[in-house]
Amino acid sequence: MATSPLNPTDLYDVRSLLSEEERMVQDTVARFTDERVLPIIGDCFDRGRFPTELIPEMAELGLLGSSLPVEYGCAGMNGVSYGLVCQELERGDSGLRSFASVQSSLCMYPIYAYGSEEQRRRWLPDMAAGKVIGCFGLTEPQGGSDPGSMRTHAKKDGADWILNGSKMWITNGNLAHIAIVWAQTDEGIQGFVVEKDFPGYAAQEIHKKMSLRASVTSALYFDNVRVPDANRLPNVKGLKGPLGCLTQARYGITWGPIGAAIACLAEVLDYSKSRILFKQPIAARQAVQIKLAEMARRITLAQLLSLQLGRLKDAGVMQPTQVSLAKWNNCRMAIDIAREARDILGGAGITTEHSPIRHALNLESVITYEGTETVHQLVVGRELTGINAF
């Protein structure tokens, strides 16, 4: 009985495990990436420009706050569909996926999960429509792996709060109309919706980046910013708030690098068949085939890992340690594949005419932000031993 060839970027036919709706979401975002992102993203990376012209199209497709309820203007997708959105966007570029992750998981999610009904009605529909862009202020200049030591603070002053401090490495900072800012208070860490036009609030874009160049990264400054109590997220106190947001965003990050790795493998597969060396395509060489097979193996494992994580999320039983394991594994997988793909391309691989060098540089940020590889290793180690080694 004849068998059809396997899909080289889906050797285990993981797609067959998706529902019809999940496949439709993946196909829709894949088409958007192919038609609207890939033709321009290399130039955007070269110029250090985020393609803001794509924001209305992403909103129209329901990609902003995609897993939040439809009553707030969102698409109401399940967790696996949100993961597939992240995968297909990052197949284009990590910067585009980072934009969607921050808007959805780090800004819209805390308003939905920790905000009042008035705050949900005020912000979420316009954020889903791409009319209001958000950023997430947690990391500070002195370090990001210990958020409990943050120095940004808010003091109660009548019906308002006075906010002072700074945040660093903030995606979307100079694009944002609002910032979800976490600050120390006398009652513990609390979250505030800081509006762009509040006096004393400033965002400064960070330049000279060699990673996430097609993304806006900023520092935020708060100099006696007066924030109404109506802009405080009332339903959470302590690190539980920002860490809950990070779990949502890290979940999407477990899927995103799979897209980057698939882009690299697909490109070098084609290249290896057309690049002739010593009178043969380099695809005929054992060394190249072993590298390609290793890429396919690691992508397959990552696909299965994230799909099961998504099923756990949709069943309501996903644990943060499981997210850490997948974030650690899949980011390491993708950055290793991007580097190998660059090597197979030879000298041509150092230009952004090919995607692997761009993905490799972007993944240096992805493997670092929202928990470094070491942090996630220690999270898993703590789960295994019951001992905190931080």
UniProtKB/TrEMBL annotation:
The keyword Isomerase does not apply. Pathway: Amino-acid metabolism; lysine degradation; Amino-acid metabolism; tryptophan metabolism. GO terms for biological process: fatty acid beta-oxidation using acyl-CoA dehydrogenase; fatty-acyl-CoA biosynthetic process. Its cofactor is FAD. Its EC number is 1.3.8.6. Residues 238-384 form the Acyl-CoA dehydrogenase/oxidase C-terminal domain. It catalyses: glutaryl-CoA + oxidized [electron-transfer flavoprotein] + 2 H(+) = (2E)-butenoyl-CoA + reduced [electron-transfer flavoprotein] + CO2. One of its GO terms (molecular function) is flavin adenine dinucleotide binding. It comes from the Bacteria. It holds the Pfam family Acyl-CoA_dh_N. Residues 135-225 form the Acyl-CoA oxidase/dehydrogenase middle domain. Residues 19-131 form the Acyl-CoA dehydrogenase/oxidase N-terminal domain. The keyword Ribosomal protein does not apply. Signal peptide: none annotated. Keywords: FAD, Flavoprotein, Oxidoreductase, Transit peptide. Belongs to the acyl-CoA dehydrogenase family. This is glutaryl-CoA dehydrogenase (ETF). It comes from Dokdonella koreensis DS-123.
